[in-house]
Amino acid sequence: MKAKAKSQYLWGLFLLGLCLLNYPLLSVYNIQEKWSGIPVLYFWVFFFWLLIIILTYWIIKKTDSSKNAQ
Hints:
This protein has 70 residues and is mainly alpha-helical. The chain is built from three helices and two strands, in the order ααββα.
């Protein structure tokens, strides 16, 4: 993966995270229900946060492995 493509993927991921962790979407999960004792809002915030971290790692790792192959 080229540096320009990597940069574009990371910016896209940033914008995705911005949308996922912003008020309109999170207000959908702001209910009184609990899953396994965890409020639904907290569960989704940490799920989205973990998803963003995993995708960031995957993008960076893919870039590093393509540099080693050349």
